[in-house]
Amino acid sequence: MSQFDYLFTPFKIGNVTVKNRIVFLPHFNALCNEDGMPSERDAYYFAERAKGGAGLIIMYAIAATRSGKMSERFIHGWDPKIIPALSKYADLVHEHGSKIFGQINHGGHTTLVNPPQLLMAPTQMPEPSSPFNTKEMELEDIQEVIEGFAKTALHFKQAGFDGVEIKVAHDGLLRSFVSEYFNRRTDQYGGSFENRLRLPMEIIQAIRNEVGNDFPLGIRLCLDEFTAWGYDLEYGIELAKAFEETGQVTYINTDAGTFSSFYMEIPPASVPAGFAVYMGAALKEVINLPIIAFGRINDPIQAEKVLADGHADLVGMARALIADPELPNKALQGEVEDIRNCIACNDGCIYQVMQDKAIRCIHNPAVGKERELGIGTLLQADKKKSIVVVGGGAAGLKVSEIAALRGHKVTLIEKNDKLGGQVLLGSKLPFRDQFQGVTSHLIKRVQSLGVEIMYNTEAAENTVMNLNPDAVIIATGSRPLGLDIPGADQENVYNVYDVIEGNAEVGDRVLFIDYNGHYKAAGVVELLATQDKHVNVVTPMSFVGENLEPGNRVMLYQRIMALDVEMTPHYEVTAIEGDSATIKNCYTEEEVTIDGYDTFVYANHNSSIAELYFALKGKCPEVYRVGDSVSPRMIEQVIWEAEELGRAL
Fold it and tell me: In what residue span(s) does the NADH:flavin oxidoreductase/NADH oxidase N-terminal domain sit (predicted)?
């Protein structure tokens, strides 16, 4: 703990003392059912982060009123029927010495439902990023919201929670009320700065009337909307000062962004880690309330520096503790190198909940399944086996880790001199270097667990059988398919792997054929464009990057549209000849010829490498295959499958 002089010291928030400065930040996880009641699965999700050592857990926002539900999976905060089930959240968190606060929100003009039944706003106007208009709230609507916040706060207290937080942040009614852009009312709830703040101020007072003055009450506050039309940090600080002046607010939980600047709410890997610490630091200079920092704070050393520099009093983490709930305990025990760091891909977490699907993580299969796969659930095998794993990509590494943890003797055969498989290639693409964190973590794990690694070994049937294994796991991955069109065998036609590995002679004008819609295509397009090449992306999809998480896609477009990139959606390439290609409209089937291209690059599907699996099948007591050797997929599905196989061995 010598490197952590601040992070693991207690801190007092009002009359509540938290054991350390690590805060699990609130975020919707879609783990509840659609009946508005808390769920056991949800409770164990939060308990896992308490078990992992976080000092304070702040539960995601629950709805203050029925009109404030952003999803059918939002808990009915106004309904006292939630109290017994909600008590389990508090009990489970308290078992591990952590504290838990509950957040309250009204979605206002933002929603995850498409289309929504009815959206509320201070003024009738949609969020600029939304096609859905709103109802301008009447005074009775406003009163219902005030009462709903107060009831919800009381229900949290009655359920044994240690404090509450209201959301004046990205997806919420209260942020739109304090916004000069969204609030164009002419009554007592609009116009002047004081009038725009009237609704949150009345809510604060109503909550105090219900829970008393000793119950911590915080504000999750958007300090900068990061839009051309919204407010900036200067205004955000004025909001914080006004809340402090009430004398009724206990702390400020900093935040930024709106649904129209979604990529700054939950920023992807292209946004630097710790990007928003400066906001909390600026706020700390002018107010005395405790400040919780946020903004891609990924590891404990980074968090310690935030505190040591005096930029905040506590450090908020969300995705970092989704990826590894044990981050606090590992840091406290001097095991920083063993932390499974978030890579900010957003594919497993925020992209899922945006679609109202249960939260996941691409390299922590236990997310959303904590009771089955979480801390302490991995048991030693009844019978210890000698296991050979062929292939050191993500699937082979993960199954090796889990098998070794269960006490098996594991030998891993890798044909190259490095482990990591296709992840090594993907990590070479622009802003994807952190992607390698998935396999670099697993490599550390298998090495520390004593897995024997045979490098530079092409596994043949006799290679494996000579090791006398009890079980063989084939994780040999996949290979790219060729293009099945006339002209695909020309010397100037390459797949994306040729480009990434540096085996392609790419000219100045490139026709890129995209059947992928994800980073395998988009990343190579950006790579080529940054080399001052003209790239025309032809895809049958509706738009380039169709399968990317929206925040990643927006930031990709911000970059490539400043480069020499042309996009031709709704077309597929049917033939290549010399420097020209025939492309066909997917809907009209009209064909046109485009020419003047030096090089053609394509991204399409892969095919499984499974020859060794079939050669060994029936010749060894147990033969399995895992990952791309079964079916080429995204890394999340591969890791999950490898975890389950490792547990079954």
Answer: 7-334
pTM: 0.96
Domain that holds residue 510: 482-604
Same-domain status, 266 and 344 = yes
Q: How many CB atoms lie within 10 A of CB 497?
A: 17
Exposure string of 195-210, with b = 16+ CB inside 10 Å and e = fewer, is bbbbbbbbbbebbbeb
CB 101 within 8 A of CB 164: yes
The answer to whether the beta carbons of residues 132 and 262 sit under 8 Å apart is no
Return the DSSP state at 219: E
How many domains, in total, are found in the chain?
A: 3
Burial letters 591-621, b for 16+ CB under 10 A, else e: eeebeebebbbbbbebebbbebbeebeeebe
- The whole-number average pLDDT for the span 85-106 is 98
- 505 and 547 share a domain? yes
DSSP string of 55-110, one letter each residue: SEEEEEEEESSGGG-SSTTS-BTT-GGGHHHHHHHHHHHHTTT-EEEEEEE--TT-
- Give residue 445's Cα distance to chain centre: 23
Count CB neighbours of 56 within 10 A.
28
For residues 32 and 109, state if they share a domain: yes
Chain CA centroid to CA 430, Å: 19
Q: Are residues 42 and 89 in contact, defined by beta-carbon separation less than 8 angstroms?
A: yes
Say whether both 570 and 473 belong to one domain. Answer: no
Number of Cβ within 10 Å of residue 386's Cβ equals 14
Mean pLDDT of 520-538: 98
Terminal Cα-to-Cα distance of the chain (whole angstroms): 37
Task: Determine contact, residues 206/150, Cβ cutoff 8 Å.
Answer: yes
Look up residue 225 and give its two tokens: 């909307």
> Does residue 343 form part of some domain?
yes
Beta bridge partner(s), residue 568: 538
In the predicted structure, residue 618 carries a pLDDT above the cut 80: yes
Q: Which residue has the tokens 């949150």?
A: 200
Statement to judge: residues 279 and 411 lie in one domain: no
Q: How many CB atoms lie within 10 A of CB 284?
A: 20
- Long-range contacts for 133-142 (Cβ within 8 Å, ≥24 apart)? 134/108, 134/109, 136/185, 139/187, 141/67, 142/189, 142/199
CA separation (Å) from 483 to 150, 494, 528, 575?
62, 10, 20, 10
Query: What span, in angstroms and rounded, lies between the C-alpha atoms of 519 and 161?
Result: 42
Split at pLDDT 50, 70, 90, the class of 114 is confident
What is the distance between the alpha carbons of residues 487 and 429, in angstroms, rounded to a whole number?
A: 27
Whether residue 380 lies inside any domain: the answer is: no
In a domain, 4, yes or no: no
Distance CA 322, CA 344 (A): 11
* CA atoms of 626 and 555, how far apart (whole Å): 33
Average pLDDT for the chain: 96
CB 507 within 8 Å of CB 492: yes
